[in-house]
Design goal:
The structure is a homodimer. Chain A has 3 domains: about 170 residues, Molybdenum Cofactor Biosythetic Enzyme, Chain A (3-Layer(aba) Sandwich), CATH 3.40.980; about 70 residues, Alpha-Beta Plaits (2-Layer Sandwich), CATH 3.30.70; about 150 residues, CinA-like (Maf protein, Alpha-Beta Complex). The longest helix of chain A has 20 residues. Chain A has about 400 residues and is an alpha/beta fold. In chain A, the strands form 4 sheets. The first copy, chain A, has a 6-stranded mixed sheet with strand order 2-1-3-8-7-6, with helices on both faces. In chain A, strands 14-13-15-16-17 form a 5-stranded mixed sheet, sandwiched between helices. Chain A is about 40% helix and about 25% strand. The model of chain A has no long low-confidence stretch (mean pLDDT about 90). Chain A is globular and about 75 Å long. In chain A, helix 2 runs parallel beside helix 6 and helix 9 packs parallel to helix 14. At the A-B interface, helix 1, helix 2, strand 2, helix 7 and strand 10 of A face helix 1, helix 2, strand 2, helix 7 and strand 10 of B.
């Protein structure tokens, strides 16, 4: 049995829905990958009592408790006080973190506000974990063979501190984690029930952990098994039954797979999008290294802009802005103008307005212009709200590109 | 005391960090706004035992328990079974949901896969909540004056079902919710400690709920008070002390505020971005109605694309791609070419690669071209990783535009 972890996220902003708990997903992913088992994530209020209660419960049930958030400067930040109250110890001051604060403020030519001094305090029985990426000090407490860690809630600070200090600390304290055989297969262009059907009933005749996760336009499956023989058998079946849809065996987004392929083949990409409004270009440029294959994009939102980039008025008038011809023209024009190997064109109706019986909300044409000058287009009617239509159209366009270049 | 709610999100994908728990933030926000108090959010594993344990705990502590997820077709979906086991009742079949399933599959010309039939079952002591937006049935159980609700985990389905059936059900069952006076102020261009300093110590001399939430480039404060007199006083202080930074008094993004202003003034916008790679255009087009003021965008990622849209080779060679002159040229050229009132230009180094001692990662120039043909540029060095630099540059550009048009 691998060491167990409970995550406690502190903050009324989470309970009131102002913030999405991305810290819990980041930590869970990293911990899972390192052979820890996260058995629960709990969000609790900015209050001493709530923190004490939840911490007590968590310490009884798990080997490791990681608290996040509530270490800021304002009066609603009470994680330090909550943990100190649980252990009945006073708070003490970290000179080292205070020096780090001074450095940060100096960079911006400012002095440390009085309020911010609070962020250098930690419970007396803890070890300070210096935050070199921000202001708020973290800390860890070892207690009855358990480990309690508190980290600031700002995602970038939390992530950097996790890699720098928390992960080494966890691995030192829990060296005997059982080896798990793990596999992830990321797929595009196939639905959850279709994956299950392709895998078949015999797939589940041996014992192992199985998870399947749908995302817009994508599906991932995750397998964990503790016996090599069983694992090899499962892996072979997946490889054989789902090979047409698997774009990667790593936890990476489709854009990164595409980027790696294009760089290897010395190909480049340009995109012209209407209803996705920049979502496709942004998906591609979110990840480092996009400049090695991505030339640029056009957001041809308004009709006049479509004309400007070379979609003829005749086409726009005869077929309408949302048509196969316009998608094809967008793909071909952007490929030529930006001198790229491939061009993608997208035009459609993301909604909620602008639909008609003949051209409903969700109607999207996607075109791909190829290095030889030819182009192909596909018609889709995506189901969902504006956000989903934009997301699905983006993934589908990337899928067509991937199928061409893989 | 308002009725209390505990949210239980079911799913190994959450515990393993494959999925971010946006359902919890959606429900928390809606419930908070309707006068319910979410006292805890918990994520638990896809297992009967975990669900029974957490459900038991939640029913003891809160008036309402909402379970999300684990209602899908695959063997890891066991929320139905977990709830039935807690109440020791069998599962029964909903013909109404099965008819809805048939409709959805018919739309795509397919028959219902055998696996999917499971999704029409619910615990015998529950009332079925028909899901008109997807496949999986929801349900509700009334038990010892408590209300237990289970909803599918697909965000769009959950959200639609919340508005259609859950919200009316909750309001009927708990009519006596205490009126809360609430206020939100959304600010841009000011940091969390600066907001606290502007508010001053006397601000906190009366009792009320206060929360302050930093996002990249933005800060929101949320106030709740139960006495009208106290609330009015607080509101006046905020209005007076923070008026230079408040862009809205509603829970809306800066882009929507800008859109409303531009539509009212009959102005239009075009953007040319390099290091933000489409993030600015996508921010603007994410929200319905963008077509009323947004003409389009250019993602001038590669140097050759910058030249194509009219940044002269001389400027690129003398000053470099990341320079004030290039930002100005991008803003002015895109404004002219797309015939917009305003043009925004962004060029910078998002990282992690591409930095140098003279031009470090995080260096970003932002320019704004005005209706009179003039343009202005600003230099920033943003702190953080690629994602943060892109996000901060996007918000800062929108801030400059907002200050000009408000």
């Amino acid at each position: 049995m691998n060491p167990t972890v409970i995550l406690l996220s502190i903050g009324n902003e989470l309970l009131q829905g102002s913030t999405v708990n991305t810290n819990a997903s980041f930590l869970s992913r990293e911990l899972f990958n390192s052979g820890f088992e996260v058995i629960s994530q709990t969000v609790c209020a900015d209050s001493h009592e709530a923190i004490r209660f939840r911490l007590g419960e968590a310490v009884r049930r798990a080997d490791v408790v990681i608290l996040t958030g509530g270490l800021g400067p304002t009066p609603d930040d009470v994680t330090r006080e909550g943990v100190a109250a649980y252990f009945n110890v006073p708070l003490v001051f970290s000179e080292a973190q205070y020096r780090q604060m001074r450095k940060v403020y100096k960079r911006f030519g400012k002095r440390i506000p009085a309020l911010v001094r609070r962020e250098a305090f930690y419970p007396e029985n803890a070890k300070p974990l210096i935050n070199r990426y921000g202001i708020a000090l973290g800390f860890s407490v070892e207690f009855q063979k358990k480990l309690i860690i508190a980290l600031p809630g700002v995602p970038a600070e939390l992530q950097n501190m996790y890699f720098d200090v928390v992960s080494p600390l966890l691995k030192r304290k829990f060296p005997d984690r059982k080896k798990n055989y793990r596999l992830i297969a990321k797929m595009v262009g196939i639905s959850e029930p279709e994956v299950m059907k392709k895998l078949g009933k015999d797939f589940f005749s041996v014992p192992f952990d199985f998870g399947i996760y749908p995302m817009p336009g994508e599906v991932a499956i995750r397998i964990a098994a503790d016996k090599a023989r069983i694992f090899k058998g499962i892996e072979k079946k997946i490889r054989c039954r789902l090979k047409d849809w698997i774009y990667d065996w790593e936890e990476i987004p489709l854009c990164v797979t595409i980027g790696r392929l294009m760089v290897r083949k010395k190909q480049t990409l340009a995109v012209a999008e209407s209803c996705t409004g920049g979502a496709l270009a942004f998906q591609i440029t979110r990840y480092p290294g996009a400049s090695r294959f991505f030339k640029g994009g056009m957001v041809a939102y308004h009709r006049s802009v479509k004309e400007k980039i070379g979609v003829s008025r005749k086409i726009l008038e005869s077929f309408g802005e949302v048509s196969e011809k316009v998608a094809l023209a967008l793909a071909q024009q952007v490929r030529l103008r930006m001198e790229a190997s491939y061009g993608i064109g997208i035009t459609g109706i993301a909604g909620p307005e602008g639909g008609s019986p003949k051209k409903p909300v969700g109607l999207v044409y996607i075109a791909l212009a190829l290095p030889d000058g030819k182009a192909k287009a596909w018609k889709h009617v995506f189901w969902g709200n504006r956000e989903q239509v934009q997301a699905k159209a983006t993934v589908k366009a990337l899928e067509y590109l991937w199928r061409k270049i893989r």
